[in-house]
Amino acid sequence: MLRAAIVAMLVAMLPSLARAQSCSFSVTNINFGLIDTLSATAATATATLNINCTGGVLRILVCPHIGAGSGGATSAAARQMVSGANSLNYQLYSDPGMSVVWGSYAWPYASRPPVIALPVLIGNASGTATIYGRVTGGQSTVPPGTYLSTFSGSQLEFRYQNDLLGNSCNTGFGFTAPSPTFTVNATVPANCLVATQNIDFGPKGVLDANVDATGQVSVTCTPSTAYTVSLNGGTTGGTPTNRKMSKGAERVTYGLYKDLARTQPWGDAGTPGSTVAGTGTGAAQPLTVYGRVPPQTTPSAGVYTDTVVVTITY
Fold first, then answer.
1. Signal sequence span per UniProt (predicted)?
2. I want to staple 245 with a disulfide (CB 3.0 to 4.6 A). Which of 60, 109, 252, 311 is the partner?
């Protein structure tokens, strides 16, 4: 009878012991730095959740519910940072493999926060947890800018409870601590990529008439990024219409042009008006390079080549 009475008294005390606990939280900011949205490679960063509890006499379970953030979310896989009307997708995870989304019972997606168990201590207890962040690669349609999402107020519900009162973070059960504030940010810089297709004039026995061929410069720039494309004078440093293909000391003169009629030479900044300008869209923009070998004295037979450097200025 005495043992039963003691057990009954201890059980009756559990709610009051839990109420005596008090926990506080802080979270460091997540800064992804510079994001190359033209790359398919993801960018990652982490934050640290710091937990400090007092008055604990049994193990404390913590449920740090994290919502969508001020940038919102379009799916369980895509929270968003925003810059004006533009958005950049990212996500927060509870595991280093970044397969388990860190969520909240209060948002419309199925993910929940991890259950964090603090050690059994009488008095104070503390711990940390890592929040893993990833910006997905290949977001080429995102314009340059500084992107931000803020977590504060209703976006966070950091709850705690005695482990005898439950062991799940699927609901809003537990005592609520004052919400910390943290931010997630990234910077998308202007960027351009270039790819080329060679010009092959093919075989020609006697250079007594125009020989025409085309190549291509493909430019991919972040949206709204203004750029110019210039072509240098080749290995021998010729002018746009007087470049030289070489075989040893022998030469074949040729020119590169912006138009099908071969009336607009394509050169570099040293020849005013000879570059090609454009504005990025995030998609590849193909630019045709029109080549012409004019009539000239025919050198000895062989393969004649030249290398032209393509420069994108943005």
1. 1-20
2. 252
